[in-house]
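User: Cytochrome P450 10-like, Aplysia californica:
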Amino acid sequence: MSDETMLRRPISRIASNDLVPPLRSASTTVDEQAKGNSNPGPTSSDPKPFSTIPCPKGWPILGTALEFANNADKMHLFHCERVRDYGRIWREKALALDFVVVASAEAVEDLIRNEGDFPFRRPLQPLAEYYRVKSQPEAILVSNGENWRRMRSALEKPILKPSLLSNHVTSMRAVSSDFVNRLDTLRDDGGDVNNIDSELFKWSLEGEAVK
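Assistant: Predicted structure for Cytochrome P450 10-like:
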């Protein structure tokens, strides 16, 4: 497959078909998996303890932190290796962090649909500390619980209406097309784009500016 072909293909298809095998079709539910899919995922009837989640051994105290540091510039490939070694749901222990990684769009969908009205997210500590020092009420990015739900309910109507989102499609398409063309010019002899993080930040900034 040529580099140009890989670039033009949807990211989801690149990830699922070329790097790791698909888990199930997007329309398949967990219940349907249990009824005969060749790759059934966990269901509400057979929950497993946290300790049974596959986990790389890592180093004492450090855990797998060094692996993350050594693969910071190719994290997407690092995650693909993890999927091949441990499956699409695995556990990482890095320094004081002990967390689960989910590498399946379908599993993430199941998670979001079952997290309830008050999902908990780790707060952005620098922002949370800023609001605390300034004695300001927490914004939606650092809030949880009922406070988050109240702000989310107020924001979802004006920002998620299809009629409003469609107003930005043309400008975002232009920015994204320029971004893809720029990636073509930045490829090295091996087809890779060095320092792609910087390019993604520029794309994100321009995308926000044209809204």
